[in-house]
Structures are given as C-alpha cells and as structure tokens.
Amino acid sequence: MGILVFPFVLFTIPIEIEYSYDSQSSLKSKTRIVWLFGCVRFQPNPRREEHRGKGELYPKQRASKKTVKADKKEFNVLFAIIRSEGFAWHLFRLFYAILGSTHIKQLRARLLLGFDDPADTGFIHGLLMPGFAFLYAIPKIDFIATPIFDRPILQTELHMKIRLVPIHYLKALVVFVFSLKTFCAAKAAYKAYQL
Predict the structure, then answer these.
(1) Contact at 8 Å (CB) between 41 and 55?
(2) Cα-Cα-Cα-Cα dihedral of 108, 114, 120, 126, to 10°?
(3) Are 76 and 195 in contact (CB under 8 A)?
(4) If we measure between CA atoms, which residue out of 195, 27, 21 comes closest to residue 111?
C-alpha cells in the first residue's frame, strides 16, 4: 500500500518554476525549479541557438533554400493544427484548466506574429483573439499580442514565475490528449507535414 501511496504524495508537493524565454537572444531560455519546500533546487543548462535576427521566420539573406523550406513546412503544420475544427477552443479550455490550477506570481509575455499573406495574419489573429482576451482580463498577466502584416515573423518574449501542484494537471491533460479534437488536429498536422 505504501508503494502506491508514495508516488501520489510526491505529486501533491508544490513546485515553483521560474522561466524566461526570448526568441531574439542567443541564450533562448532559462529555467529554475524549486521543489520539496526549497530543499531541492534545479537549474537546467540554458539552451543556446544561433541568432537568426529580427525575429523573421525565414530571412532570405541568411537562410538557405533548405532552411526556408523547412521553416515553411513547420508553419504549414502549425497553420493546419490551428485551423482544425474545434481544436483552438479545445486548446483554450486546456489553458483555462491549467491557469485555474496554477498560482501565478508573475507573468509577462510579448508576441509578434505575421504570415506571408496579410489575410492569413488577420485570420489567425482573429481566431486567437478569444484566448488573447482571456489573458488580457487576468490581472497578474501582462500580455501583448501584435499582428504584423508586412512580413512573416514569429517573435516571442516570456518571463514567468509560477507555483503548481502536479496532480491537479493530470485530469486536464488526459482529457485533452485522448479527445477526438486532438486526434483530428494531429491527423491534419501529419497531412500538412507530408505535403
């Protein structure tokens, strides 16, 4: 019985996470994790990536044709997932469940998003607006999303400090992963990747 209870107890112990991400920095992200009421502290090695400049998805002067093609394929997959029927709302419900179970001490986020076609930019931004409006309404979240219509760009900046209890997320994740909407979105992403 103790073997079954012990993992359950571990999942009820709060975790504090501090995370920073900047898509424009060579030092992409930094994470610090505190567990067991401060007795365990962990800081993963920060990930360094080549700086691509100005947040462009596929700058023509710096990226090879192979890189441009790979970036476009990734964007097509993202676009297919977002356009999958009902998935955006399904994803927002997951975020709502996660945020509802998370004690946010600090959260600041900035997002610049643009596609080749300004119509696609407007469509995606409009599709995501209900989720953005929800984030704007939370007092502890400082969030700004800006659509860019004159060039393809994906630029993000995030800093957050949160406290969470792992067991609170299990139900939300199980419902999200094993749903028909998630399956349809994964199928659409696979088809877009094969193109």
Answers:
(1) no
(2) 20
(3) yes
(4) 21
CA dihedral sign, ordered 172, 173, 174, 177: positive
Cβ(60)–Cβ(68) below 8 Å:
yes
Query: How many angstroms separate the CA atoms of 86 and 129, rounded?
Result: 15
Tell whether the model's pLDDT for residue 65 goes beyond 80.
Answer: no
Closest by CA position to 10, among listed 37, 32, 31, 41: 37
The whole-model pTM stands at: 0.50
Instruction: Provide the residue type at 55 as one letter.
Output: G
Where helices occur in 84-179 by DSSP H, the ranges are: 87-100, 118-137, 167-177
Question: 84: exposed, middle or buried (C-beta count within 10 Å: 0-12, 13-18, 19+)?
Answer: buried
pLDDT digits (tens, 9 = 90+) for 121-133: 898 888 888 878 8
